[in-house]
Structure formats: structure tokens, C-alpha cells
Amino acid sequence: xxxxxxxxxxxxxxxxxxxxxxxxxxxxxxxxxxxxxxxxxxxxxxxxxxxxxxxxxxxxxxxxxxxxxxxxxxxxxxxxxxxxxxxxxxxxxxxxxxxxxxxxxxxxxxxxxxxxxxxxxxxxxxxxxxxxxxxxxxxxxxxxxxxxxxxxxxxxxx
Amino acid sequence: xxxxxxxxxxxxxxxxxxxxxxxxxxxxxxxxxxxxxxxxxxxxxxxxxxxxxxxxxxxxxxxxxxxxxxxxxxxxxxxxxxxxxxxxxxxxxxxxxxxxxxxxxxxxxxxxxxxxxxxxxxxxxxxxxxxxxxxxxxxxxxxxxxxxxxxxxxxxxx
Lengths: 158, 158
Ligand SMILES: CC(=O)N[C@@H]1[C@@H](O)[C@H](O)[C@@H](COP(=O)(O)O)O[C@@H]1O
Ligand SMILES: CC(=O)N[C@@H]1[C@@H](O)[C@H](O)[C@@H](COP(=O)(O)O)O[C@@H]1O
Hints:
2 copies of one chain form a homodimer.
Chain A: E1 8-12, H1 18-25, H2 36-48, E2 61-68, E3 73-84, H3 87-90, E4 92-101, H4 110-124, E5 127-134, H5 139-144, E6 148-157
Parallel strand pairs in A: 4-5
Antiparallel strand pairs in A: 1-2, 2-3, 3-4
């Protein structure tokens, strides 16, 4: 179940994914009023954020979509964001964020395929670890993806 | 206890903080072999990473040190990193990272002063929330800083 099912493909997010991505994300949390042009501006910003000291154009923000090939529909979306630290000799940490699977595409293991893809991307970018925060009810899913409990997420909301 | 104690000041990290910052961080985790010049390169990289669509030069990586004014010694260090998202109408999330207090300066509430500073910085940069991951044993400290439990941190190590 690590490989993408027949009829689906995975690639970096693009402008034409606007409707499908905002729909999928609205199953995770509040998306709010996000226009196509704001969406495009964020993708353009993400494209400019490069990791330091490399010549391969490796980026900090890596957002992928799983697309149903026949229709072009967005079935899942997620990000691995790479943070540059001082610790671990100037190490990199991958943060998996904003994972959403469109309910129409449940039961195809697309969530697991997406997490495996983002984790592998974090590894290939040189991260010493990849982390994420989730609800207690999703711990079992992430364990099946190779993750273990590491700590407590704390928040303050503005 | 929200204000900085007499004899201390707080400011953005600088090149001359190398020894004090690496010493403080080695109390948190592995720092490894990090030379002065690698340290400087990371600070220079952090300086280049700007938030999108603003004219105030607001940065993604905001690392602060608390300095003992009389000696210039680093008593504490920590970061609030700002992530640009699609959700929450293109919202910003602050990630507090790599908090360390030099053991010589314990008992002065510097940890709380630092967290309050970083949280306020996240708010003033426009974050809709600030989050962090910590050990179960530090939950009480972060609660005193105004944080609440939000979820489970999961990790995979490479
Ligand atoms: C693994 C995963 O997808 N975790 C997400 C996180 O990335 C997202 O940003 C947050 C939004 O919640 P919020 O709307 O309360 O900020 O929910 C979950 O923690
Ligand atoms: C609030 C705070 O300071 N949390 C830190 C985190 O920022 C740091 O990066 C990590 C290092 O641990 P590691 O060496 O196992 O990656 O420890 C803690 O989770």
C-alpha cells in the first residue's frame, strides 16, 4: 500500500488545483475566504522559499496533491515544510501540515500514500526527522505510516 | 513576571552569540559540530526569509536571545518561526522552537519571559495561533505561559 493506486498521480500543487484543494482542506478546518488570486499568490510565495546552501533548487514548502488522472480531480493534499535549525549541526526538520483527503476518495489508502510521499520527500531533502501534530484519534493512522508519539502539542490562539 | 528582569535585555540573535547560544542549546539536545561560520551562514539565511506581501520586512525566522547586560552572556534562546498556510484564508501559524535557558540563569523566570516575548511576536506578525511541541514534563510550564494542550506530536527519524 505504499505505491499510488492505478488511475491516480501525485505532483506539486498548481494553480488549477484551487477548487479541489480548498474543498479538500475545508474537511480539515476553516479555509475561509480564499480567492483564486490569493491562492496563486501563496503558491508563488512558496516557490520562492528555497533551502540554504544548495544548488538543486530544493524548497522549504513542498505541497503535493494526489490527482485522479481521468478527471483531474484533487483527491488529497498535504505539505511537508522544511525548517532550518542550529541544532543537529544546522539540521533540517520536516513538518507535515494540512493533510486532507476528499471524502469522495476515501478507502483507497490515499492518505497513507500521501504521508509516505511527504516523509520520503523530507528524507530526500536531508531532514533528520519529520514531525506532525494530530488529534489523538488519528494517532493509529500515523503509526501505520511509520510515525511514533514524540510529545505534546501546545497552542495559544490569538 | 511578564517583564524582563533588571540587568537583562532581549534582542534578535547575532553572530557574537555563537558560544552562548550553542552552549544553551546543548542543554536541550544535540548541537553537534557547528562552527562559527556555519552559525553565521544560518543567521544570514534566516535574515533572507521574509513573509509574503508585506512592506515591513517581517521575517519567517525570529530567533531571540536574552542577554545579561553586564557581561553580554546569553542566558536564554528561542525561536518563533512563521509558516504561511492556505487554510484560515491564507493564515500564518507561529511555531515556537528550540527553547533553551542556560542553567547558570535558572530561577529568574527567563523561560517565561522568552515565551511571552515569542508569543507576542507571533501575534504582532499576524499569526492566528502559535504552537509548540514539548515533553509531557514541560506541559505545566507552558500552561503558565498561557498555552493549552492541542494534540499529539508524532515523529519519524531518518
Ligand atoms: C497532520 C496534520 O494535518 N495536522 C493538522 C495541521 O497541519 C493543521 O494546520 C491543523 C489545522 O487546525 P486549526 O485550523 O485548528 O489551526 O490541524 C492539524 O493539526
Ligand atoms: C518548545 C521546544 O523548545 N521544543 C523543542 C523543539 O523546538 C526542538 O527542536 C526539539 C529538539 O529535539 P530533537 O533533538 O529530538 O529533534 O525539542 C523540543 O521538542
